Amino acid sequence: MKKPPTPYRALPAEQRVALVTAMLTRHPHTRALFISRLTSRKGGFRAQTFQPWPADKLAREVVRVGAESVQDEVDLLQLLYVELEPAIQVTFLDAAGVRHDNGTMPEDLSPPFADEAAVHRAVQAVVAQHGPAGDHYLLTLVTYARAGWPGIVEAVTAAKGG
To answer: Rounded to two decimals, what is the model's pTM?
Structure first.
């Protein structure tokens, strides 16, 4: 039986390319990391070949060969939900009563970030307001941040009627 894709890999390829492009543009140090991964593949290009490529072309190659690590996936989804499209995270954090600045939680917060009742309210708010994009956000939390949100698995299961 085939394992279901991670929340990142469940995104359409075009969206993954857009995320990697945004990462390369906003965080230039990631260029060397991705180039290193591309050149480490057997029969691949040399680093000098990739250096002059624009971010979008490099991103297409990274996604095409699946050069993103598990940590990259987490970082790219954080980029999506905190920097690029924070509306869903804002809804979740507001409903959970968690301090934030446009979806960015203060560094001094530590898990768990809210109690179980607050997590249930937050899940319901996201499901009610954000449709399939909200479902993907919640899957992301369940997969990568479960420890920070007590009862999130049960809240998501209940919200989805399961």
So the answer is: 0.91
